[in-house]
Design brief:
The protein has helices at residues 9-21, 25-46, 50-73, 90-117, 122-126, 130-133, 136-161, 172-179, 184-201, 203-214, 218-234, 236-249, 256-284, 300-309, 345-358, 369-378, and strands at residues 291-292, 316-325, 331-339, 363-366, 380-384. The protein is α+β, with helices and mostly antiparallel strands and 387 residues long. The protein has 2 domains: 9-249, no CATH class; 280-384, 2-Layer Sandwich (Beta Polymerase, domain 2), CATH 3.30.460. Strands 1, 2, 3, 4 and 5 form a 5-stranded mixed β-sheet that branches.
Length: 387
């Protein structure tokens, strides 16, 4: 796929924004606000140095973003704070990976910024209009500021697509990101547009809440002024996390899902025809039924292969082994693979492609409907995914 080809992310990003501005988003945001509140109280009591406070704030933001980014990368693009797609420690390791990528990405930019900024006057660094009068130096400073602003989101994307710290020092994640460069403007536009849309949709309810706080005291009025912009900003980890996760999840071609769905529907028709043929064969050859239980326990080789290879496929729930009569005469060892419940058609097609890549040395089939019932009845379970 070329870098300029449209991807599924371009369609899914709109769906992410849609769920972010729905009224139900406030249920998702409550735990996020609670975390921000508790962290703010803790930092107020501890009063750490500014440098440590900056690192802590970024780490906490990355932890919140990670909860939504990892869930979205696994298909839960509208999941909540406690998504079932998350495992213990996922968000913490995400935050650490993100910090690693940020240091690698930001340190050279910050160093170059200070080097150039030391030769510029303070007004050139503060006033945007003075950048033009600063010539090439001003343009470089603007470019570096944009890179510094984009750096955290880029780090979140890289932390989502990787799983090990060593990946930060490998060229593969950066090559992958470069291949997706045409989707980056879509991501940043979705993040900015989603924030603005959230701000204006809920501006009146937020103003009503803030006006009630402002009427209590002068300090309340100051706090209310901050809350108008603080509430949408504190919600951003949810939007950015979902967009980064969807960026990784939707890396396939835009029309792949539609093609996969049509391919799967065709396969379902073929499977239905095959079931009719099998029933006819079973009736005409009663001594060779389509499903035959194993007379002995399956070999350790089959069990080991199933535990090793099928465990790498998150869409597989369990697997059974039995003898399968394909032509009414011969019988072969067959592994029946039951996918997770609720899989979309495109995900099921993707699972079949992944199984083909494994080059299973045995006959295998996807279990559903009556085939699943017969396989459970006649087969022996050799693999079950742990929750």
């Amino acid at each position: 796929m070329l870098a300029s080809d449209p991807t599924q992310f371009r369609g899914l990003s709109g769906d992410v924004i849609y769920h972010f501005v729905k009224p139900s988003i406030w249920l998702t945001l409550m735990p996020v606000y609670a975390v921000w509140f508790l962290a703010t109280m803790a930092m107020y009591m501890i009063s750490p140095p500014d440098e440590l406070l900056t690192i802590f704030t970024y780490g906490l933001t990355a932890w919140l973003v990670g909860r939504y980014a990892l869930a979205a990368s696994r298909g839960d693009t509208s999941g909540g704070f406690f998504s079932p797609e998350l495992e213990a420690g996922d968000a913490i390791f995400f935050a650490l990976r993100s910090l690693t990528f940020t240091f690698i990405w930001e340190l050279p930019i910050v160093g170059l910024f200070h080097l150039i900024g030391s030769n510029a006057s303070p007004t050139q660094l503060i006033s945007p209009t003075s950048f033009l009068s600063a010539g090439l130096t001003g343009l470089v400073i603007v470019f570096l500021l944009l890179l510094m602003a984009a750096g955290p989101i880029v780090s979140f994307i890289l932390a989502t697509v990787t799983s090990k710290f060593s990946d930060a020092f490998s060229a593969d994640p950066y090559k992958w990101l470069y291949s997706r460069r045409s989707d980056l403007p879509v991501l940043f536009a979705s993040a900015i547009g989603g924030w603005i849309l959230f701000f204006f949709i809920y501006l009146i309810p937020v103003l009503l809440i803030c006006s009630g706080i402002a009427s209590q005291s002068f300090q309340g009025a100051i706090l209310a002024g901050f809350l108008v912009f603080l509430i949408p900003s504190a919600s951003m980890p949810v939007l950015i996390g979902r967009l980064c996760g969807t960026f990784v999840h939707g890396s396939g071609p835009l029309f792949e899902k539609l093609s996969a769905d049509m391919f799967t529907l065709s396969e379902e028709v073929i499977e239905t025809e095959s079931e009719v043929i099998e029933d006819i064969q079973a009736e005409s050859n009663p001594e060779h039924p389509p499903f035959v239980p194993l007379a002995v326990d399956p070999s350790q080789e089959i069990i080991d292969w199933s535990k090793k290879e099928l465990a790498s496929l998150s869409a597989v729930e369990n697997a059974y082994v039995y003898l399968r009569s394909q032509d009414g005469r011969s019988q072969e060892i067959c592994i029946g693979i039951k996918p997770q419940d609720g899989l979309r058609l495109g995900d099921l097609s993707k699972l079949m492609k992944e199984l083909d890549k494994l080059k299973c040395p045995y006959l295998y089939e996807i279990l559903s409907g009556e085939i699943l019932t017969e396989a459970v009845k006649s087969g022996m379970m050799i693999y079950k995914r742990r929750n």
